[in-house]
UniProtKB/TrEMBL annotation:
This is Phenylpropionate dioxygenase-like ring-hydroxylating dioxygenase large terminal subunit. GO terms for molecular function: 2 iron, 2 sulfur cluster binding; dioxygenase activity; metal ion binding. The lineage of its organism: Bacteria, Pseudomonadati, Pseudomonadota, Betaproteobacteria, Burkholderiales. Residues 25-128 form the Rieske domain. InterPro entries: Cholesterol_7-desaturase, Rieske_2Fe-2S, Rieske_2Fe-2S_sf, VanA_C_cat.
Amino acid sequence: MNPIVQDGLALAAATRVETGLRNLWYPVTPSYAVRDTPLGITRLSENIVLWRDRAGTVRAVEDRCPHRGARLSLGWNLGERIACWYHGVEVDGEGKVADVPALESSQLVGRKCLRSYPVVEYGGAVFLWFGSMEHGQPRPFALPEEMTNDEYSGFLCMQNWKCNYRYAIDNVMDLMHGTYLHSNSHSMAQGDKKAEMVIRHTDCGLVFEKVGQRGVNFDWVEFGHTSSLWIRLSVPYRPQYGGGEFFIVGFVTPVDDGNCQVYFWRIRKSQGFERNVWRFLYRNRLEGLHWDVLEQDRVVIESLARHARSQENLYSHDLGLVRVRRVMEKLAREQVEAEQAAAVH
């Protein structure tokens, strides 16, 4: 390959992995945030407007009027359409111009001028499909069992972090920080402060786990690549809180290269009366404790040294995050190569 082309490919792949991999479903906002008024957001460095149509279904298109580029999120929700505040141009949920009310007729009407985003609303969050040119149709929406099986019950929490999304993923792949950073947590106060760790491959990713310790602290984490990138783990509850495993299924959504959102579904396997007790206990006693743990993570990650990843001295406990970094970098390169090949043909 031509060295100039190769350098360009490497740069494009590095940019892709920093701003967010494509051909994936990402949660972009809690469901409660999308009401009748148009909502403007930035995700994966793309400006998007969300609104609910008359049936309550979430629609998502580029936040840009095709006429003069004004933000559609400043406009009006007309149900199946959104109208620009600047000149009233109406766009539907497919990104097509539906009307230009200032003119008797316009060649813009009926043209698809904006990118639209497939939407799935699930588990209290709105998910969008961020596809590339060669993946016009989204892959089937699929989540880990803990989020889809009726035997489990959980709650969504979302937090905005001022860091690149890869640092947030690194944090979850770092098993040993639970024993130190969260040493006063009700769920991570136990366990040895030394450990051996191994990687175990799965059908859709990998599990990074401590050798000979399970159900004591933050002892294992799974990184999955299906139609989304997700992270799954469990921590134990103390007997006074009912004992057993408490699962977390997490997603990290890039906003831009310096900001992200973390979505954690906190989940318990329970049914009947036990489920009611767990949900009551969580809301009235445990939720605040879990937010404290997440806040500890946020404070440390947001205060990392500038360009921390380029100045690291890693050791064996970091094998999991190193492997995930390589997986994501490989995916970024494959995506960029496929897009460039599709553009040529």
